[in-house]
């Protein structure tokens, strides 16, 4: 299966490089130079922006190695290109600026498909789906979303939960942190009354915190799709990433990663 995926992706790379242009006749990023695909294939190095403190998407373990759901995707992408992968730690707020300044070739860091984001960054086809949930201490009297009024609710800066708190829960006191780990610590220490995060992150919080926390029994907020992020204007690179995700999502490797980190099979929605 994996060899078949590599062969299909390699064939696409040859076609893309041979054409060297987008559907509009542009070459490379915004018609200003060679595609990132060309650079990665020539240098045999792929630089990926990932989380280092946002389980299960990406964390740096005690051995100083990156691991997680998104890290699996980055390794598979680099493998398909015959390249070594170099990880660069990012945060919710710094993801898009890293792309714009060329510090990374691609962002694989739980980037939700928001319309406003698609105006400044090229979004691939989805590689995951999620929603947003609220976690509270087990003994909390918060039972519904309405109970968040007047309460301190943690979220990471620049994230979907931060946007939800601003737009849908203006009466809540949003406490924004730079990293998911900081939000979790704020909840654990009692600095905040609740925490809003994605379904994947909440699943990891429940595993680590056990009976000390509970999730509000309410529908997930803002069901959404999650994509890789690439720099605007590089259609050749975007085409390759889309083809990679399409093949990867139907592979055994994708299903193994989904089950390991999220406890479920790859959803039919993104196959």
TrEMBL record:
Record-stated family: Belongs to the bacterial solute-binding protein 3 family.
Keyword tags: Signal, Transport
The protein's name in its UniProt record: ABC transporter substrate-binding protein
Family matches, as InterPro entries: Bact_solute-bind_prot3, Solute-binding_3/MltF_N
Any GO CC annotation of this UniProt entry: outer membrane-bounded periplasmic space
Domain Solute-binding protein family 3/N-terminal: 45-265
UniProt key word Transport: yes
Gene3D superfamilies: Periplasmic binding protein-like II
Taxonomy, superkingdom: Bacteria
Provenance organism: Mycolicibacterium murale
Keyword Nucleotide-binding: no
Signal peptide region: 1-24
PROSITE patterns associated with the record: PROKAR_LIPOPROTEIN
GO biological process, any: amino acid transport
């Amino acid at each position: 299966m994996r060899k078949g995926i590599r062969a299909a992706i390699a064939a696409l790379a040859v076609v893309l490089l041979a054409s060297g242009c987008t559907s509009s006749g542009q070459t490379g990023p915004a018609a200003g130079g060679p595609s990132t695909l060309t650079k990665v294939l020539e240098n045999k190095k792929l630089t990926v922006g990932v989380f280092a403190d946002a389980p299960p998407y990406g964390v740096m373990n005690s051995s100083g190695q990156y691991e997680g759901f998104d890290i699996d995707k980055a390794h598979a992408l680099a493998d398909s290109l015959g390249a070594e992968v170099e990880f660069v730690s990012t945060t919710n707020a710094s993801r898009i600026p890293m792309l714009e300044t060329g510090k990374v070739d691609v962002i694989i860091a739980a980037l939700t498909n928001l319309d406003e984001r698609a105006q400044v960054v090229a979004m691939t086809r989805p590689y995951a789906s999620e929603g947003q949930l609220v976690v509270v201490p087990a003994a909390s009297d918060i039972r519904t979303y309405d109970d968040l009024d007047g309460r301190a609710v943690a979220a990471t800066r620049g994230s979907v939960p931060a946007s939800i708190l601003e737009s849908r829960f203006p009466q809540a006191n949003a406490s924004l942190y730079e990293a998911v780990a900081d939000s979790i610590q704020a909840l654990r220490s009692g600095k905040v009354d609740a925490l809003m995060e994605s379904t994947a992150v909440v699943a990891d919080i429940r595993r680590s915190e056990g009976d000390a926390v509970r999730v509000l029994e309410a529908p997930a907020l803002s069901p959404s799709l999650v994509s890789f992020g690439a720099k605007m204007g590089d259609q050749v690179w975007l085409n390759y990433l889309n083809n990679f995700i399409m093949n990867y999502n139907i592979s055994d490797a994708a299903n193994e990663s989904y089950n390991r980190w999220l406890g479920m099979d790859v959803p039919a929605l993104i196959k």
